[in-house]
Each structure stands twice: as C-alpha cells, then as structure tokens.
Here is the input.
Amino acid sequence: MNPVEIYKRLPATNCGDCKQKACMPFAFALLKGEADISECPWLTDKEKGDMASSVNKNDWQEALISSLKEEIKKVGFREAYGNLGAELRDGKLFIRCFGRDVIVGPDGEIQTQDNLTPWMRMLVLFYIRNGGGHGISGKWVIHSELMGGLMKYKAFQRECEEPLRELFDRHFEKAARVLDGYGSVHPAGFATPNAWLLNVFPMLPVVFLYWPEDDEFESKVTIRFDSTADKYFDVEQLIFLIKEIVEDIEEKTEQMPS
Ligand code: SF4
Here is the structure.
C-alpha cells in the first residue's frame, strides 16, 4: 500500500489522537515504521488487522521502483534528454534535481553523491518516465490552481507549507542558507524579499516565499509552481515531492552548526 491508499482507509478526521498532526502524516509514519496502526484509536480491531497485514513499507516501494525501472528501459534517452532539461553523457542522463547531480543509467539505476530516499528515487524515475516536453510557461500558480489541486490544497498546506513556515520561524538564517546551498536564486517581483527559486527538476521550477510575523500578520509561507508543473507530476506527487524537500531542508538545517 502507498500513503494515499492507507490514508483512504483512515477515518480522515485529523483528530491527532495518534500523536501525529493529522491522518496523512500518520499514513507516512506507518510506512516509515515510525508509528503503529494500533495508535489510531478510531479503527476497529478488524480494520487494524486488515491494515497491519497489508502495510509493508519496503515491499510496495521497491516493487514500484522495479516497475518504473522496467518502463525507463523503454525510454529513448537520446530523444528524451532535451525535453527533460537533462544532459546525455555516455548513454546516461545527468539531471540536476533537489540541488543534487543525479545520474540515471538506461536500466533506471540512479547514482548520486548522497543517498536519495525511496520517494526521491521514485520521483526521479517518474520524471523520466513521463517524458517531459511541456516547457516552462513563466506563469506562477499556487498548488490549488494546478489540475486537481483544489481538492488537495489543504493537504498541501498541511504537509508542505506549514512545516516550512514553522522551520523558518524557528531557524530562518540556517534554513535560508540550506536553500541557498541547493543553488536557489532570489527572484525579484514577489511581495517579499524572502524568495527562493529552485529548479527542483530542470523543468520544474518552484518558488518558496516566506513572510515573517509582524505587528499585523502571522508568519506565512506560500509555494508557487510554474503553471506547467501538473504536466510533469500530478498534484499528489507534487505534495510528496515538496514534502520530501521540506524534510530535507529541515534535516540539513538541524545538522548545521550555530
Ligand atoms: S488518530 Fe486516527 S483519525 Fe485521528 S489523526 Fe490519527 S490516524 Fe487520523
């Protein structure tokens, strides 16, 4: 089962009785082995039993990665690399993603300087499998304006924008340095100077905007996508993608010396 399938079988009340903020983080925590199904008191014993037997974080991830690798073998790198904004060297794709250089072989094997989480590996393979070719429009939109985004916007805010806002509130200088370290640039034309433009994938630019708290307003984070983003990933994949990046920023921020 993947997180969405698990989420669909949870009560979806976001009550927090499991000590997670809501049902979606609980679904992720289950798959990471950081929570147990028994911690949701609102499931019946039968529901708990059924889910416990089908939640196996490694099986579904590795199965999906294997099937994506099979699909990657059918992608003609020579025809695809330009559409993906990648380089082709010795038959391998060189792609700059999440501030890292990622090398993908024609068999779908991924090499990076540091470890990528299974989610990151899956998203790299999805990006290649989907083939690209939609360009970049230069028009910035929020997640709810992407195709299917309206229904998922609350989840996007809860999983992506809110954790990043909390991180900026706690450690603005360090988190800003992490984003700079990814190779972000500071675009003009936004209503805050705290703006980072990061090519999460070569054809998927994302802008992170932060407004600190002031006398009138609470702090706020807004994340904007190029309007073509939903041609490269669906809105659920974009939630997983940005959530992974926010967690990566948080991890690097926490490791940074004062
Ligand atoms: S206790 Fe259950 S219903 Fe409540 S947030 Fe956690 S998973 Fe959702």
Summary: The first strand starts at residue 87 and ends at 89.
